[in-house]
């Protein structure tokens, strides 16, 4: 990517995050690692929830997606020290957090920039396809989730019952990680794996570094190792030069994979990114048409996948008391019909409309006492919308 990288750097000088401190280059990602360590030492980490916590493990990004400003705004990848993350996970467990999401622009790269250590001697260099990453004796995401899964309560249960991680990059999703996902009971059966396009030519223009074949091979491997895993993805329509055939290839990919959820966006140019050198030539009205068409396809698929949950019981981490008539978009999908709204319109005293997430990251609505917030409850699914489920506690 030498030529592209040079061009990108020249094109993004104004937004580059790398600064010089005492003669050494310091990226924004480096600063963030230090800032996190300082915040932990000073007891100054703010948390938006007492139930679920984000746990940053890596900052910055080494990828070269042409539409994305992150590599230039955040700088190169910087992993947090393994033991520091584990200590923070212990603190979260002791504080009663039920769910932790490991966070990074590309969590699958975690650890490759850390120093080798004898205790990780069993970690060998690994790349499944394409790029060689020097992993020799360094921790990776698989090591990290096994270590967090290994934190136990006095009775031997996982100290953090639910572990997730986001965002994954298809190119770095290793077999070691897939094996760890299958082996660790706390790792939820849900994976967000952005694909962005179903066209190889488009993926090349986007600088995504994988092909659709590679992407599908990874999903096949994950579905084999973790049966029933819910899959979600990101898609961009109307990127530079996208033909109707390329757009239709993305629709076909959605039909092939049958994601549980897709977050889709129409491309809009971001100043300072390499893609500004490509012609943003799909008319706005055409981008809208493609976005609406894709969302309609995914809505049908998502609805079909959710219907498969009818009559089944799923574990829900209740996290919200839904105020009467204060439905957000997702709530509208599940509770917006007259029938669904009626389900929560006349609740007895002491019973509220609650919502939470299943291990498969499905939004689930239920009725119950507000004291259930923060608890894991079993819910039998009685209604399935395209974006959410509704059920009763068992
Ligand atoms: S889209 Fe994600 S993987 Fe690609 S450069 Fe941006 S942050 Fe990195």
Descriptive report:
With about 400 residues, the protein is an alpha/beta fold. It folds into two domains: about 1-305, tm_1862 like domain (pyruvate-formate lyase- activating enzyme); about 315-394, no CATH class. The protein is about 35% helix and about 20% strand. The protein has twelve helices and 15 strands. The chain has helices at about 1-10, 30-40, 70-75, 80-95, 140-150, 175-185, 200-205, 210-225, 245-255, 285-305, 330-335, 340-345; strands at about 20, 25, 50-55, 60, 80, 100-105, 160-165, 190, 230-235, 260-265, 315-320, 350-360, 365-370, 375-385, 390-394. Strands 11-12-13-15-14 form a five-stranded mixed barrel. Helix 5 packs parallel to helix 6 (about 175-185) and helix 9 (about 245-255) packs parallel to helix 10 (about 285-305). The protein is globular. Mean pLDDT is about 90; it is low at about 1-20. The structure holds iron/sulfur cluster (SF4). Iron/sulfur cluster (SF4) binds near residues 65, 71, 105, 106 and 169. Iron/sulfur cluster (SF4) binds near residues 61, 65, 70 and 71.
List keywords for this structure.
single chain, 394 residues, alpha/beta, pyruvate-formate lyase- activating enzyme, 2 domains, 5-stranded mixed β-barrel, 3-stranded parallel sheet, 12 helices, disordered N terminus, binds iron/sulfur cluster
Q: Could you name the CATH homologous superfamily of the largest domain?
A: tm_1862 like domain
Shape: globular
Q: Termini distance?
A: 55 Å
Q: Spell out which ligands are present.
A: iron/sulfur cluster
The number of helices is 12
Return residue spans where pLDDT drops below 50 for at least 5 consecutive residues: 1-22
> Architecture of the largest domain, according to CATH?
Alpha-Beta Horseshoe
CATH topology of the largest domain: pyruvate-formate lyase- activating enzyme
Strand order of the largest sheet: 11-12-13-15-14
CATH class of the largest domain: Alpha Beta
Structural class: alpha/beta
Helices and strands, in order, run as HEEHEEHEHEHEHEHHEHEHEHHEEEE
Supply the number of structural domains.
Answer: 2
Question: Using DSSP, what is the number of strands?
Answer: 15
Query: Roughly what fraction of the amino acids lie in strands?
Result: 15-25%
